[in-house]
TrEMBL record:
This is Thioredoxin 1. The keyword Transport applies. InterPro entries: Thioredoxin-like_sf, Thioredoxin_CS, Thioredoxin_domain. Residues 1-19 form the signal peptide. It comes from the Bacteria. Keywords: Disulfide bond, Electron transport, Redox-active center, Signal, Transport. Residues 11-124 form the Thioredoxin domain. Pfam families: Thioredoxin (PF00085).
């Protein structure tokens, strides 16, 4: 997995692919996603990962075992986005996939017998559900860098497909930074968060950011939307009502 830069102020603020060869974002469709009724293991790893190196002999042994009808595909998380989109937060991580659908996942190092048992167990499962959503949702927004040294495009790219991570970072910026460039960067992040998934918390974050940026009309509009959604979902509206009063007082 690419190192996720969930920045808080306290921290300053291909050819034919065979088993064990690396897959990329671009080759997922012709490898991992093939619908051929075979169980596949998508193995997220990276060159710097010590536990991954410890697993190498086990993975190689299973991949070369002709008695096991399984293909293991490795993905270097430093060079791809699929792991970020799929919210792989630690490595090694293993996705068990058949006909393009994820049946389960596991992580950490394990003995060969444990891995084989997992493969066989998932192979017996009924395949159902949606296809693995490894492609990120397109956005109408472009990443905007902030003035803070950590708010670079490279860092922000690692969060671009995680709605809750984007919301968390945008809120931290709102709480701790004052530079207009940083706040505008946070506004892009929260708009992307809402684009991916709309919920009370990210609407509240957007309303607070707009208020801090001085866009009182849009702040109030967003706050009303957050209050309506909170009421529908049975959540507390106290914080957003307090913000609405502040916005009205500043108007």
């Amino acid at each position: 997995m690419r190192i996720l830069f969930i920045i808080t102020f306290s921290l300053l603020l291909s050819s034919t692919i065979t088993a064990q060869e690396y897959v990329t974002d671009a080759t997922m469709e012709e490898t991992v996603m093939v619908q051929d009724d075979q169980i596949k293991v998508l193995y997220f790893t990276a060159p710097w990962c010590g536990p991954c190196r410890a697993m190498a002999p086990t993975i190689e042994s299973i991949a070369n075992d002709e008695t096991l009808d399984v293909t293991i595909y490795k993905m270097n998380t430093d060079d791809n986005l699929s792991d970020d989109i799929l919210q792989v937060n630690s490595i090694p991580t293993y996705f068990f996939i058949k006909n393009g659908r994820k049946l389960g996942q596991s992580g950490s190092t394990m003995r060969r017998a444990e891995m084989v048992k997992l493969i066989e167990r998932h192979d017996k499962m009924t395949v159902s559900g949606d296809l693995l959503a490894y492609k990120g949702k397109p956005s109408k927004y472009e990443i905007a860098e902030g003035a803070h040294e950590k708010l670079t495009k490279k860092n922000l790219e690692t969060l671009w497909y995680g709605s809750h991570q984007l919301n968390e970072l945008a809120w931290k910026i709102y709480q701790n930074l004052e530079d207009q460039t940083d706040l505008k960067c946070a506004l892009v992040l929260i708009n992307r968060s809402i684009e991916l998934e709309t919920y009370v918390s990210n609407l509240e974050t957007k309303a607070h950011l707009l208020h801090k940026l001085g866009d009182l009309k849009q702040a109030l509009k967003t706050a009303k939307k957050a209050k309506k959604l909170a009421s529908q979902e049975g959540e507390s509206t106290a914080i957003i009502e307090q913000l609405m009063e502040q916005i009205k007082a500043d108007s």
